[in-house]
Design goal:
Strand order of the largest sheet: 4-3-2-1-5
Structural class: alpha+beta
Radius of gyration: 16 Å
Distance between the termini: 42 Å
Largest sheet: 5 strands, antiparallel
Number of strands: 5
Shape: globular
Strand content: 25-35%
Order of helices and strands: HEEEEHEHH
Length: 135
């Protein structure tokens, strides 16, 4: 078997796994268009950021605005965790709470990519640092 065909087969498997994860995380009831899944709060319990699931997409909100949306639970969970770590480094204690559904979907995506979630988060942080340095 050639290396190219193995790479294509592995890519198809990862794509199929992502599709299964997205289907499993899609909203079940039409009466619940927005499902809250995570919130990042400061010491005074002010909401700094949150994650909801809407129409099968994970939506990240920060400072009262939508910061982005993605089909990737791992991406949005890593983003809110990194935001929390940034606040902590700046001396502002925060509290992050997230649902088991979000955590399970994020960990399953990372595993489908062949890594642990912490590795996924570190790679995202490194890409973000690289983009900041390039820009």
């Amino acid at each position: 078997m050639s290396t190219d065909s193995k790479l294509r087969r592995d890519a198809r498997r990862r794509q199929a796994e992502r599709a299964r994860n997205r289907a499993a995380s899609a909203p079940q009831a039409p009466g619940t268009p927005v499902e809250p899944h995570a919130e990042l709060r400061d010491g005074e319990r002010k909401l700094l950021a949150g994650i909801v699931r809407r129409d099968g997409e994970w939506v990240l909100g920060m400072d009262g605005r939508i910061a982005g949306e993605s089909p990737s639970a791992a991406h949005v969970l890593a983003m809110i965790m990194l935001a929390g770590e940034l606040h902590e480094r700046e001396g502002r204690p925060v509290r992050l709470a997230y649902s088991d559904a979000l955590k399970d979907a994020a960990h399953a995506e990372a595993k489908a990519e062949g890594m642990e979630f912490e590795q996924f988060k570190e790679q995202l942080a490194a890409r973000m640092r690289g983009a900041q340095q390039a820009g």
